[in-house]
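testing teh design pipeline on a random one, pls ignore if ur not involved
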C-alpha cells in the first residue's frame, strides 16, 4: 500500500519534483478500484497545493516595490537614502556630478521667488532692483533651452550650461545678498504656498549653505545630495540587499501627466510605498514636467496645468484611493509614508490646518493632532475600499527617521504577503490579478475544493493599522513624535 506521507516529501528543484510526482503517479496507476480513485484525487490535490506553495515562495523572494505618489513628495529622496543605507552611499565622484544640479536648484529657487514678487504684488526694494535684473539677465543669456523663456507667465526654470565660474561670479553674490538682506524676498518665501508654481523645498537649505557651495573646492556632501531636487523622468529601477533579502525598488515621475504610464508597472509588483507630502496641505500648484521631459507626448504635460486647482494633499488622497481601487493592485499591500513632517511642523503654527481642511477641529497649533487628522483621512480612504494599510509619519531627509519608517513599512508589506501566501484563496487571486490571469478560475476552484479551508484575503480586515514612526500608536496621542523637533 502507498504511504500518503511519502507524497509530501519536499524536493529541491522543479526537475526533482517532477520526477517525484512521476514515480508516485506510476505507483498509483498500479492500484485498483477505490484505492486507485482515492490516491488519484489525493495526488491531484497535493500537486495543486504544492504548486501554489512553490509559486508563493517564488513571489515572496521577489520583492518588487513601486514607489508611487505625487510629484515632489520624496520618492527619489527615499531611494537616495536607501543607497546611503544599503549600497555604500555616494562616492566623491558621484557627488561631484550633482554639483551643477545644486547650482540649478539655487538659481531656480531665487528666480521663482523673484517671479513670485510680481504675482503676489510685493514691491522689490529699490536698492535690490539691479540685483534682480542682473540675475534675470544672467539666466536669459545663459539659457540653453530654446523653448523655455526665463520668467514667462508662469515660471519655467532656465537650462544653464554651468561652469563653476558662472555660479561663483554671477549667481553667488546676487543670491547671497537677496536672501540675506531683501525683506521682499523673505516675505515672498513665507507666502510661497500662494504661488501657482513650486519654490523648491531645498531652497532654504541651499541658500543657507551658499558660502560653502560657492567655494572653488566645493564637493557636495551626502546631505546636499539628499536635499537636491531633480524631477524624475521615466522609470528608474534600484536594487538593494536588505538583511540578506533582495529588493527592487521602482521610482517613477509623480506629476499628473506621468501617472497614466504607471499602469505598465503594476504587473508582478509585491508592494507599494505610497508617498504624500504632509506639508502640501496648503499648496495648490500643479507640478508639471519640464518641456524637456523624456515622454513622447508633451501635450500630456499640459494636462496638469489645465486641471482645476485643488489642494495637493487632496490630490494625494484621491490618487491613493484610485490606486487602492485599481484591479491590478487588488492584492498588493500598501505602506503610506506621510513625508516632510519637518516642514509640516514649522508650517502648522503659521498656517493652521483648519484654514485648508475645515473638517479639522483640533487645536490650531497642535502639530501632532494635525498630522493625526491627515493620517486618519488616508486610513478612512483605505477603509472605504476595505483595505488594510500601514501609515508612517516621516521625514525623508533625516536618515534615522526614514530608516525607521522604511523598516516598519517594509515589515508590513512582507507580513501582508506572507499572510496572503499562507492563505490559499488569497494567493490564487493574487496570481490572477498579476501573473497568470488565465489560470486563476480553474486553479482557485480546484484548490478550494481539495483543501476545503475558508477563504481569507489580504483585505479581510476592514480595520486599518495605525502605528507611529517609533512603533507607538500615534493616533492616541496629540503630541508630535519625539523626532519632530530634532534639528533636521
Ligand atoms: N525638508 C524636507 N524636504 C524633503 C523631504 N523629503 C523630500 N524632500 C525634498 O523634496 C524635494 C523633492 O523630493 P523628490 O524625492 O525629488 O520628490 P519625488 O517624489 O521623487 O518627485 P518627482 O520625481 O517629481 O515625482 C527634494 O528637494 C528633497 O530633498 C522631507 O522630509 N523634508
Ligand atoms: Mg523623483
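output:
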Amino acid at each position: 500500500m502507498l504511504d500518503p506521507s511519502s507524497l509530501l516529501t519536499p524536493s529541491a528543484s522543479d526537475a526533482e519534483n517532477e520526477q517525484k510526482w512521476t514515480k508516485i503517479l506510476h505507483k498509483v496507476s498500479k492500484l485498483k478500484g477505490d484505492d486507485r480513485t482515492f490516491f488519484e484525487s489525493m495526488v491531484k490535490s497535493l500537486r495543486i497545493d504544492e504548486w501554489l506553495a512553490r509559486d508563493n515562495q517564488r513571489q515572496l523572494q521577489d520583492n518588487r516595490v513601486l514607489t508611487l505618489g505625487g510629484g515632489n513628495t520624496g520618492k527619489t529622496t527615499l531611494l537616495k537614502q536607501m543607497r546611503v543605507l544599503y549600497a555604500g552611499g555616494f562616492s566623491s565622484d558621484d557627488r561631484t556630478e550633482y554639483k551643477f544640479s545644486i547650482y540649478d536648484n539655487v538659481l531656480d529657487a531665487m528666480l521663482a521667488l523673484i517671479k513670485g514678487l510680481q504675482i503676489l504684488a510685493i514691491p522689490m526694494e529699490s536698492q535690490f532692483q539691479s540685483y534682480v535684473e542682473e540675475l534675470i539677465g544672467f539666466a536669459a543669456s545663459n539659457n540653453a533651452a530654446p523653448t523655455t523663456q526665463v520668467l514667462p507667465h508662469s515660471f519655467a526654470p532656465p537650462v544653464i550650461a554651468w561652469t563653476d565660474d558662472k555660479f561663483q561670479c554671477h549667481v553667488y553674490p546676487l543670491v547671497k545678498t537677496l536672501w540675506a538682506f531683501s525683506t521682499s524676498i523673505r516675505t515672498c518665501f513665507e507666502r510661497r504656498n500662494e504661488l501657482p508654481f513650486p519654490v523648491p523645498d531645498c531652497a532654504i537649505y541651499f541658500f543657507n549653505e551658499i558660502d560653502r557651495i560657492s567655494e572653488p573646492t566645493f564637493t557636495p556632501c551626502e546631505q546636499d545630495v539628499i536635499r537636491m531636487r531633480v524631477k524624475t523622468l521615466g522609470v528608474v529601477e534600484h536594487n538593494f540587499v536588505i538583511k540578506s533579502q533582495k529588493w527592487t525598488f521602482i521610482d517613477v515621475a509623480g506629476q499628473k501627466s506621468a501617472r497614466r504610464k504607471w499602469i505598465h508597472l503594476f504587473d508582478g509588483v509585491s508592494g507599494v510605498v505610497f508617498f504624500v507630502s504632509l506639508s502640501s496641505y496648503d499648496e495648490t500648484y500643479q507640478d508639471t514636467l519640464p518641456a524637456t521631459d523624456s515622454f513622447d507626448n508633451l501635450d500630456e504635460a499640459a494636462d496638469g496645468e489645465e486641471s482645476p486647482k485643488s489642494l495637493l494633499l487632496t490630490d494625494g488622497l484621491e490618487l491613493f484611493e484610485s490606486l487602492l481601487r485599481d484591479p491590478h493592485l487588488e492584492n498588493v499591500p500598501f505602506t503610506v509614508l506621510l513625508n516632510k513632517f519637518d516642514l509640516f511642523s514649522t508650517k502648522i503654527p503659521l498656517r493652521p490646518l483648519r484654514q485648508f481642511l475645515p473638517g479639522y477641529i483640533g487645536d490650531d497649533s497642535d502639530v501632532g493632532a494635525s498630522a493625526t487628522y491627515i493620517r486618519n483621512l488616508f486610513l478612512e480612504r483605505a477603509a472605504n475600499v476595505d483595505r488594510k494599510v500601514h501609515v508612517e509619519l516621516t521625514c525623508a531627509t533625516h536618515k534615522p527617521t526614514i530608516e525607521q519608517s522604511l523598516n516598519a513599512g517594509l515589515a508590513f508589506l512582507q507580513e501582508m504577503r506572507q499572510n496572503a501566501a499562507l492563505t490559499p484563496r488569497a494567493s490564487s487571486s493574487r496570481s490572477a490579478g498579476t501573473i497568470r490571469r488565465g489560470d486563476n478560475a480553474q486553479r482557485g476552484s480546484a484548490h478550494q475544493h481539495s483543501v476545503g479551508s475558508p477563504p481569507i484575503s489580504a483585505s479581510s480586515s476592514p480595520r486599518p493599522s495605525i502605528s507611529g514612526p517609533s512603533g507607538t500608536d500615534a493616533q492616541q496621542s496629540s503630541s508630535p513624535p519625539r523626532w519632530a523637533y530634532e534639528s533636521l
